[in-house]
Amino acid sequence: MTGPVVVLENVDMIFGEGAADQVHALKEIDLQIEQNDFISLIGPSGCGKSTLLRVVGDLIQPTSGIATINGKSARQARLDQDYGIVFQAATLYDWRNVAKNVQLPLELMQFSRTEKDRRTQAMLELVELTDFAGHYPWQLSGGMQQRVAIARALSFEPSILLMDEPFGALDEMTRERLNLELLNIWRKTNTTVLFVTHSITEAVFLSTRVIVMSARPGRITADIEIDLPQPRNAETRSNVRFFELETEVREALRISEGGQENSRAPA
Amino acid sequence: MSESRQRIWAPVLILVALIFLWEALVTAFNIQQFLLPKPSAIVGNLVQVVLLDGAVPKEDPVSEISLDNRFIVVVPGEPTPEMQATMQEARWWEFPLGARRVSVLRGSNLTPILAASWFTLKEALGGMAMGTLAGIAVALATTRWSATREALLPFAIAANSMPIIAFAPIMNNWFGIDNPFSKMAIVTVMIFFPIMINTLRGLISVDNRSLELMRSYAASDSEILFKLRIPNALPSLFSGLKVAGALAMIGAIVGEYFGGPRIALGVFITQEAALFRFASAWAAILVACLIGISIYLVILLAERLALPWHPTFRA
């Protein structure tokens, strides 16, 4: 694929259009994502980050504007199974054990039995859960559940990984470890990632670009290139440039929130 | 381990204590058996334990001691030939206890009560099978076509508020009073709603994220049904089945109160009560209770086998 992976042109999303309580969730969004980009969307609560992610994934259709994915419509991309999705909640199926959960998309896409087993095995190794293949979701910690969700999303090698605050419900230590794991996976699999987060540190640490959004209506207010060296690792966090970029994102968030009474920077 | 043992033994001890209290109070206050028979008199209809004290010869003729549906009978000396013949016929098993012999007999009402219970159990299970199939079918249909749901649900809810058992005489008239199908029809209608509404709830109350996940894989409606909705509905289907299991025996027995073949449990109970044989009516009720509990336990076991993944069963 040579062209950009995601192109959004003048996308507007209005919920309950015409009603007194209509919500202008997204306004005039233009965004282009290149192959192998790791893009973070950051902004105050209710700024439409998740909505934007859902528009890209064709889980909702925009009120106006065009979303083009891999050179085709978002709907066609969904039907072609171009998306791997990870939500804040792991959303594992309780009645399937870890291996069966990872296999779910492979089953639906009619992979052969040997291929299913091979990929499940490989994915569980990737997220280091091989020993837990037979466990049921309730037997796993939150961090392990989320790793299963990531393995499931990657099992069929989607060209785009959509992640909606995947580590938002986890404790700080687990989150940092999974951040590193995610970067490893991203490097190994050559996927393009669209990542929604509340955390400035997480956004700067992971991304090649950070998109800052403002709330009501949700608009892109800044697009910050993260030029930290790859591969990122624990030392990246003590890099001077890391702090500069953090400050830059924090400033951009403050400006984007300028008009609101609630001006505390998200943690 | 000791805690789970305690969970079993505490209720058992309370039950045993209550039965002894019941026996003692009825004896102490000399309560008439048509008001409340003694537990031993009830059980004596089903099982009798005879203690034969052959070692002590007695001058009194033993024939004055009657078995008479008593639970525990002590017979001093040799039993009369008549009694021996009765015991021979009804004997389950016999074993020595020191110098004595203990003979366990089938109670005089055991055979008719068991036969009646089997007849009524078949009605209950037949109705349960039909009601469950119908409930699941309607739940699936209303999941598939949500327009049907909005059109049908008010009727289903209204039907649930009706005392369905009131239709029992009508069903008896429609299908024939001696035809077990008349009772099955009552049970079917009674359990349809709890099965249908529980299954439906499980089918439609699917986590929105789970659905979005399926959609992101471009899954078809039938794939979503089989891989997401149906597994998601199994726990609530089992809740429905537990309710239905209790209702099924109620429906069948009460249906028989309005008339049925002589061999039915409900008919047996009404007849015995009408003839002032309350202890044997109680014995039949006791067996009905045990059957109800057994149905519940079987459903519980099936649930454990079918849903090993369910967090309720975590060790």
Structure description:
The complex is a heterodimer of chains A (267) and B (315). With 267 residues, chain A is an alpha/beta fold. Chain A contains eight helices and ten strands. In chain A, strand 7 (160-164), helix 6 and strand 8 form a beta-alpha-beta unit. The longest helix of chain A has 18 residues, at 172-189. Chain A is globular and about 50 Å long. With 315 residues, chain B is α+β, with helices and mostly antiparallel strands. Chain B has two domains: 48-106, no CATH class; 110-313, MetI-like fold, CATH 1.10.3720. Chain B contains eleven helices and four strands. Chain B has helices at residues 2-28, 39-44, 81-90, 110-144, 146-160, 168-175, 180-204, 208-216, 221-257, 265-274, 278-306; strands spanning 47-53, 72-76, 91-97, 100-106. Chain B has a four-stranded mixed β-sheet with strand order 2-1-4-3. In chain B, helix 4 (110-144) packs antiparallel against helix 5 and helix 9 (221-257) packs antiparallel against helix 11 (278-306). Chain B is elongated, with a radius of gyration of 26 Å. Chain A binds chain B through residues 54, 57, 59, 78-81, 83-85, 87, 89, 91, 93-97, 104-105, 107-109, 136, 138-139, 162, and chain B through 207, 209-210, 212-219, 223, 227-228, 231-232, 234, 307, 309-311, 314.
Keywords:
heterodimer; A: 267 residues; alpha/beta; 6-stranded mixed β-sheet; 4-stranded antiparallel β-sheet; globular; B: 315 residues; alpha+beta; MetI-like fold; 4-stranded mixed β-sheet
Question: Can you summarize this structure?
Answer:
The complex is a heterodimer of chains A (267) and B (315). Chain A has 267 residues and is an alpha/beta fold. Chain A is built from eight helices and ten strands.
Identify low-pLDDT runs of chain A: 261-267
Order of helices and strands of chain B: HHEEHEEHHHHHHHH
What global shape of chain A is seen? globular
Overall number of domains of chain B: 2
The CATH H-level superfamily of the largest domain in chain B is: MetI-like
Helix vs. strand class of chain A:
alpha/beta
What helical percentage do the residues of chain A reach? Answer: 25-40%
Output the strand order for the largest sheet of chain B: 2-1-4-3
Mean pLDDT of chain B: 87
* Biggest sheet layout of chain A: 6 strands, mixed
* Pair with the biggest interface: A-B, 27 and 22 residues
- Tell me about the biggest sheet of chain B? 4 strands, mixed
Total strand segments of chain B: 4
Q: How far is the first residue's CA from the last residue's CA of chain A?
A: 37 Å
Structural class assignment of chain B: alpha+beta
Q: Under the CATH scheme, which architecture of the largest domain in chain B would be assigned?
A: Orthogonal Bundle
**In angstroms, what is the radius of gyration of chain A?**
19 Å
The N- to C-terminal Cα distance of chain B equals 11 Å
Oligomer kind: heterodimer
Helix fraction of chain B?
A: 55-70%
* Percent in strands of chain A: 15-25%
